[in-house]
Amino acid sequence: MAGVFQYDNKVFRGLGKVTDCFIVSMFWVLGCIPVVTFGASCQALYHTVHKQIKGGRGYVWQEFFDSYKDELKSNIGITVIFEVILGILAYERMLLRVMIDNGGDKTLTVMYMLTAFLQLLLVTWAIITFCYRARFAMDWKNSMKNGVLLMLGYLPRALVITVSIFVFSVLIRLLPFLICFLPVIWFLLYEFLLEKVFRSIMRPEDAQLEEEQEMESKRDNV
After folding, report:
1. Distance CA 140, CA 150 (A)
2. If 0-12 CB within 10 Å is exposed, 13-18 middle and 19+ buried, where does residue 211 land?
3. Other CB atoms closer than 10 Å to residue 71's CB: what's the count?
4. How far apart are the C-alpha atoms of 196 and 180, rounded to whole Å?
5. Cα–Cα–Cα angle for 49, 55, 60, nearest 5°?
6. Can you point out the beta strands (E) in the chain?
7. Is-contact 127 183, C-beta < 8 A?
8. Radius of gyration of the chain measured on its C-alpha atoms
């Protein structure tokens, strides 16, 4: 019975994980508020999910903010590029919506849906790019280039991410309180989809070192 109240038993560790998920989700939300820091916040969330939530190494607040500050200026620049393109597509959708409401033909409806899909693909490209930056140190140009190459090269995984972005947006709109936990669940899915891809392009010695660290962490948490 006394073991139930020990801080390191499975119940307390489980409660600790739930608390960590809540904390890092709130960090992500706060980190996105300036809008132009969306990319930095996504990079930090992926890093924290991979290393702390999934790997059990470090502390959520330290891992998040260390990654958030890392290459912040470059991440803001990349985010602005994505948001400008997203804004252009959003403006085009608005114009198409007006024309459709004023009696436009079916071609405009198809164009409207295509533009919406392009927006989702753009966000997918952005998410993959910032997840990639969480795992590899690289300048902004090559990060964006490799992000789109990974998206096209692993299209089925990218389409799952695209669908998840749509589902995430709908759920948050319908049930806003889910923002307290959904970001971590969202990025745990991305970690599952992308980590094998990232490991395949890592240097063998780096991949082996990470595997050893993860195994050691699992042993410590048993």
Report:
1. 15
2. exposed
3. 21
4. 27
5. 50
6. none
7. no
8. 20
| Number of domains making up the chain | 1
Residue 104's Cα: distance from chain center in Å? 37
Evaluate whether 36 touches 76 at the Cβ level (below 8 Å). Answer: yes
With a CB cutoff of 8 Å and minimum separation 6, the contacts of 114 are none
Ordered DSSP codes for 92-155: HHHHHHHHHHTT--HHHHHHHHHHHHHHHHHHHHHHHHHHHHHHS---HHHHHHHHHHHHHHTH
Residue bearing tokens 């994505």 = 82
Which whole number is the average pLDDT over 125-136?
96
pTM above 0.90?
no
Tell me the per-residue pLDDT of 79-96, one tens digit each, with 9 for 90 and over.
Answer: 999 999 999 999 999 999
Q: Which domain holds residue 18?
A: 2-221
